[in-house]
Amino acid sequence: MTIGVNIHKTLKAGPRTFQLDAQFASDGKRVVIYGASGAGKSQMLKAIAGLSRPDSGLIELDGRTLFDSSAAVDVPARERRVGYLFQDYALFPHLNVRQNIGFGLQRGWFNPSSRGEPEAVRYWLEAFGLAEVAHQKPAELSGGQRQRVALARALVAEPSALLLDEPFAALDPALRVRMRAELDALQRRLDIPMLLITHDPDDAATFGGHVLTMSEGRVAGEDRNG
Ligand SMILES: Nc1ncnc2c1ncn2[C@@H]1O[C@H](COP(=O)(O)OP(=O)(O)OP(=O)(O)O)[C@@H](O)[C@H]1O
């Protein structure tokens, strides 16, 4: 993955102003953006995904310009071909596992049928060991299963990169260790570039790759460890 980001956005909430001035470039397969809560990591990730619009700047991914304010380019989120794993996984509570994964195919805003399973959905159910719970709803799953469903939903559309917002924050410590290892293995197996944001130094240490440090809306440092 080659990614280049240079974006600016002013966020106002009442008397408070937050200034995002994020600039970095990477050609890593594993990029970790590490920083304290409130540093601006989620805002930057949302801008890359197309879920939030910078005031100005440039975002390039694998030679494609996703956003360029000077040329009025703003590729819609669904055309950016990036998967996004939300901090709380954002699964649909009324849909079962199979339907939640099927939703990632995004063939319009519809309720995926519980019958007639697309091949890609079957593949990810098997790959993540979810076939047995395919009929269960998110509230009836363990934390690790919920995370796997969210990962499957992000991967089913065959994105060219996966963006992960604090993927382990919702897990208890033991499960966190296991799911870190799972994500590590998944990245090696699929060879899909991943950009992960976290405030947990252990995530940065174990997931490795190109680690960028973010502070007060800016990328303040970087380290390559693998
Ligand atoms: N819609 C908004 N309007 C105004 N300010 C906002 C808005 N969303 C976020 N902010 C502010 O922008 C700053 C950066 O928020 P962001 O969610 O990017 O932080 P973060 O580094 O991802 O933190 P965390 O690790 O807690 O998720 C925070 O100070 C936050 O209060």
From TrEMBL:
Any one GO molecular-function label of the UniProt entry: ATP hydrolysis activity
Boundaries of every ABC transporter domain copy: 2-226
InterPro entries in alphabetical order: AAA+_ATPase (IPR003593), ABC_SmlMolc_Importer (IPR050093), ABC_transporter-like_ATP-bd (IPR003439), ABC_transporter-like_CS (IPR017871), P-loop_NTPase (IPR027417)
Keyword ATP-binding set for record: yes
Domain of life: Bacteria
Signal sequence region: none
Keyword entries, A-Z: ATP-binding, Cell membrane, Membrane, Nucleotide-binding, Transport
The protein's name: ATP-binding cassette domain-containing protein
Annotated source species: Massilia eburnea
